[in-house]
Amino acid sequence: MEVGVQVVQRWILARLRNRRFFSLAELNGAIGELVADINARGPEPLTGEQRRDLLEIIDNRDGKGSLLMTSQVPISRWHEIIGHPTLGDAILVRSTVSGSASKLHKAVRRACLRHGEQRGFGHRYR
Prior knowledge:
The protein is mostly helical and 126 residues long. The chain has two domains: 2-41, no CATH class; 48-125, no CATH class. It has six helices and no strands. The longest helix has 18 residues, at 24-41. Residues 99-105 and 117-126 have low confidence and may be disordered.
């Protein structure tokens, strides 16, 4: 997470490098506009390597303790962001069925469990 903050910080500083500000309020306003621009963009779909890394992290946590994932992306858009239907299913099933997802209703969780069992993941959640 700290690396992500550093990337954003450097991007903002680079964008403001050649500008002059005559008050702190003016500087804060310019920074606020750039932060709003970053927040409006949203995440880009994961690359193949990023998908495999995420799945590996989730698999490595299985049975070892809690897995807490936070996201600004609604669960309904995870497939779009993950960018691969099969890996998207695997990541969603592994990260939501064994625990809980605050936005999922019970019927959706049951459907995920059935889907996971059909794909061979069900043995982990019995």
